[in-house]
Design a protein that fits this description.
211 residues, elongated
Length: 211
């Protein structure tokens, strides 16, 4: 990812926050013809302890349909990339005090280089599904446990799970940090916009911009 210094928060805690808030990711690896192959899927984030009691991203857990060849590509070529896209929105040049400006697009994103380990056992897949259920609908856990075993067995046979160990990551928070003359006006525009714009305004405030 192209990452100018001014857009790099240099803090894995920021990446952790983005990945937890936006778990629907893109898993990208290489198919048998050497072309990028992408699967869009929710991922469960596992964090590891770091200095002074903080947590940092450590691994991602997910699954795909058995009919999706991506798991085979991961088994044969385990290194892959995972991307997370947070809020993003257009920004008009009208926020600047002069007219010699151009539009831009602000956004928040994380890219992870990962090493994949395919998990095809029923116990591992069931544990993964329970983690995803806990992430997104904890109340569904009892219903899953109460389903007939022949049904859940078929469901588990129809998927392949994988663990993606995070080797390295890049985090980009682009909210025009380098344009302080426009920060106050940018916040006004974002506050009056939709959910993505308002979320970008919160990122500006979190970074102490325009306040």
């Amino acid at each position: 990812m192209y990452l100018p210094t001014q857009f790099d928060p240099k803090n894995p805690q920021v990446a952790l926050e983005i990945m937890q808030a936006h778990p629907f990711a893109s898993l990208i690896s290489v198919d048998d013809e050497g072309l990028p192959f992408v699967t869009h899927l929710p991922l469960h984030l596992e964090a590891a302890p770091a200095e002074e009691g903080t947590l940092v991203p450590h691994a991602l857990l997910g699954h795909c349909a058995r009919g999706n060849p991506h798991w085979k590509y991961l088994a044969e070529r385990p290194q892959a990339v995972v991307t997370f896209m947070g809020p993003h929105a257009y920004m008009s040049p009208k926020v600047y005090p002069d007219l010699v400006r151009v539009p831009t697009w602000n956004y928040v994103a994380v890219h992870c280089t990962v090493q994949a380990d395919v998990l095809d056992g029923a116990e591992a897949k069931d544990a993964l599904l329970k983690q995803l259920i806990a992430d997104h609908e904890p109340a569904y856990a009892d219903q899953w446990r109460g389903l007939p075993e022949d049904y859940t067995g078929k469901m588990l046979q129809g998927i392949v799970a994988f663990s993606l160990k995070i080797i390295s990551l890049q985090c980009k928070v682009k909210v025009n940090q380098h344009r302080p003359e426009a920060h106050a006006r940018m916040l006004e525009v974002y506050d009056a916009g939709g959910p993505d714009e308002q979320a970008l305004g919160q990122w500006m405030r979190q970074m102490g911009l325009g306040v």
